Amino acid sequence: MGWNSTLFADFGVVALADDGVYEWIRSAIGMSAGDPDDIIFLFFGDGSFRMADSSRDEVFSGRRHESQVMSSNDNNRLEKIRERIKEFPTGPGLYFMKDTDDIVLYIGKAKNLRSRVSSYFQPSSNLEASRGPHIVEMVNKVDHVDYLEAESEVDAMLKEARLIKDVRPLYNMDLMDDKTFPYLEITIREDFPGVYITRKPHERGTLLFGPFTNVSDLRGVLVELQKIFKFRTCNLDIRKDDPNRRFFRPCLLHNIHQCTAPCGARIEKDQYHKIIKDFVRFLRSKRSTILRELQQQMDEAAKSLRYEEAGMLRDRIRLIESLDSRGSVNEHVQPEAFASDPTEALVKLRDILQLPNQVRIIEGIDIANISGAEAVGSLVKFIDGRPFKNGYRRFKIKTVKGIDDYAMIAEVVRRRYKYALRGEELWPDLILIDGGLGHLHAAEAALKGMIVDAVASGEPVEMPHTKMASIAKREEDIYLQGSTQPLKLGAHSPVRKLLQYVRDEAHRFAQHYHHILRSKKMLNEG
């Protein structure tokens, strides 16, 4: 197709339009073939247009659609993206919409990556109607799309939630808060363990399954499984040596044969523990035996025209199968679910650091690399003892070659705190390094060197009030700035737990990003 070009002195502009688009607009506003051609189309950068007809002294407004009007640059960009999508796998995974600066604009999950991602860039698709104007705006900014394969749809869903919380893309509206997926928790160290659905598991003394992606199915299957195993789901404190148990009246669940009523001494501890062991074995197995029995019962009910019973058995089978729609506690980490109240820890930490004011801002730093390849640094920010995700930062190491964690920590410190040194950002109250005494000294030296250089060059300097510390793995020794001897805190110390939380979050954040970089590199090399 050629291009029409018309100059109108009154408007002082030149309007350019593809012939097909020109005819489409004329048709859309009710112009016929016999109407005059002395009109002007003014196209604007936001996708809108205005039309003026000098013979009728009228002005029309509208908005062009990507599939109807696009520049040659847009055509080239979209064609390049479409060619790239043809290489995508057809299995489950995550996709990352990125701009020209490689910044992630949007993260999504897909059952079929190629099909899902291509739907954003089909010439005939109307994204504004199907997915909203913010998605249209996002697609217009996309320069390229990357992907990360997942083992299953559940794996993709859980990874999507984690990455959205960490990366916080501009165009993701959901999953940005700290809400977590639920777990199935069994309090195995109690005399009579309970079984619960929870988003805030206990720190110790429990056995966890999940996280689960569908809480309503989880509630439904727990009801069905309680009918079979008759475990308790109440929050009573039931102890074997409590003599008053035999006077306690059990609840309705015991009367309808859905609980063995340990609260009322209706079952011995050993018997009850066998029930829990069988239940745990069932959760860990493929559950083929019970599913086969239920399938046979459903088939028999259907053959006997007992359709209501067959439908109930079908629903029960589906619920039990939904137990597989879960992730792994270790692989699909949800640190928000295990956070405790930091109030006591912050008060005691202020005393340990000998600060005049309350500790409010803590920043944790960690390094991740495999044999020196694709090394990255992470920085996490905690405010009042809780993660502040908007303050998280990642640093792709630029100046260090090979394996040198000390030099990498120094680089992150210099890149992060140059703004605070200029007075452009607030200093944290505590900088926590993941590592031992050597890692702490590297961070101290980097910060001291920054200050010396700034003073020597005559630059204005915002002197830090910040304290530094490090926490090493295994022994969990805590090193404070100015001391060579570790501070040893008990395993249940609230200060130690808070510092471990910051350290673990920095480590997880670095490792997660590092995993993505490694996956991307292998993908591109493949």
**Mean pLDDT across every amino acid position:** 82
Report helical residue fraction.
Answer: 25-40%
Oligomer: single chain
Shape: flat
Low-confidence parts lasting 5 or more residues at pLDDT below 50?
1-21, 43-49, 52-70, 521-526
Helix tally equals 15
Indicate the structural class.
alpha+beta
How many β strands by DSSP? Answer: 18
Taking all Cα atoms into account, the compactness measure Rg is: 31 Å
Distance between the termini: 39 Å
Report the sheet with the most strands, covering strand number, pairing sense and barrel closure.
7 strands, mixed
How much of the polypeptide forms β-strand, as a percent range?
A: 15-25%
Topology:
Layout: E1 3-8, E2 13-18, H1 19-28, E3 39-43, E4 48-53, E5 58-63, H2 72-85, E6 93-98, E7 104-110, H3 113-118, H4 127-131, H5 133-139, E8 144-149, H6 153-167, E9 183-186, E10 195-198, E11 207-209, H7 215-229, H8 252-255, H9 269-284, H10 288-303, H11 307-321, H12 343-353, E12 361-370, E13 373-383, E14 386-387, E15 393-396, H13 405-421, E16 430-434, H14 437-456, E17 467-471, E18 478-480, H15 494-525
Parallel strand pairs: 12-16, 16-17
Antiparallel strand pairs: 1-2, 3-4, 4-5, 6-7, 6-8, 9-10, 9-11, 12-13, 13-14, 13-15, 17-18
Helix pairs in contact: 10-11, 12-15, 13-14
Could you explain how this protein is built, in words?
- With 526 residues, this protein is of the alpha+beta class.
- Helices cover 39% and strands 19% of the residues.
- The protein has helices at residues 19-28, 72-85, 113-118, 127-131, 133-139, 153-167, 215-229, 252-255, 269-284, 288-303, 307-321, 343-353, 405-421, 437-456, 494-525; strands spanning 3-8, 13-18, 39-43, 48-53, 58-63, 93-98, 104-110, 144-149, 183-186, 195-198, 207-209, 361-370, 373-383, 386-387, 393-396, 430-434, 467-471, 478-480.
- Helix 10 (288-303) packs antiparallel against helix 11 (307-321), helix 12 crosses helix 15 (494-525) and helix 13 (405-421) packs across helix 14 (437-456).
- The longest helix is centred in the last third of the chain and has 32 residues, at 494-525.
- The two termini are 39 Å apart.
